[in-house]
Amino acid sequence: VQLQASGGGLVQTGGSLRLSCAASGRTVSSRGMGWFRQAPGKEREFVSAISVNSGRIYYAGSVKGRFTISRDSAKNTVDLQMNSLKPEDTAVYHCAAARGSLYYSTGNYYKADEYDYWGQGTLVTVSS
Q1: DSSP-derived 3-state class of residue 88
Q2: 20 to 30 Å CA-CA from 86: which of 7, 21, 46, 122?
Q3: If we measure between CA atoms, which residue out of 18, 50, 41, 38 comes closest to residue 89?
Q4: From CA 28, how far away is CA 22, in angstroms rounded?
Q5: Across residues 25-38, what is the average pLDDT?
Q6: Beta strands 45-50 and 91-98: pairing type?
Q7: What pLDDT is attached to residue 58?
Q8: Which of 47-51, 60-64, 107-111, 112-116 has the weakest average pLDDT?
Q9: Mean pLDDT, the chain, whole residue set
């Protein structure tokens, strides 16, 4: 599975961006999908995840209510709509394909080890 993230850019505080992750090579329809981010000098952190058939959706507390994850299994894509952006959202955003469905969650959806395919990342910069 190859994952290609796109949609990053420079936006002012309060603005919006929509990230997209396109999967190729194999279908990811049977896998949960997630977004992680890594800010300069910081550890990678979980942002959001979505199970197969969009049955379960998970958000980090810091983005809940501002970000919306969605997937289109027919297109093999996963999107992250980011609204009300803040300077602390500045990071490289990576999409990832989970080892399992994430539907019957073991509570580990936020752990990087749950994902075995990663995209190269797209940079989001929020100016104050």
Answers
A1: helix
A2: 21
A3: 38
A4: 10
A5: 93
A6: unpaired
A7: 96
A8: 107-111
A9: 95
Return the structure tokens found at 55.
């049955």
Encode pLDDT of 65-114 as tens digits.
Answer: 999 999 998 899 999 999 999 999 999 999 999 999 998 867 889 999 99
Cβ–Cβ under 8 Å, residues 119 and 92:
no
The single-letter code of the amino acid at 61 is: G
CA 113 centroid distance within chain: 15
Residues in the chain: 128
Instruction: Report the distance separating Cα 90 and Cα 83, nearest Å.
Output: 13
CA proximity to 29, closest of 94, 74, 96, 81: 74
Handedness of CA 57, 32, 23, 124 (dihedral sign): positive
Beta bridge partners of 33: 50, 97
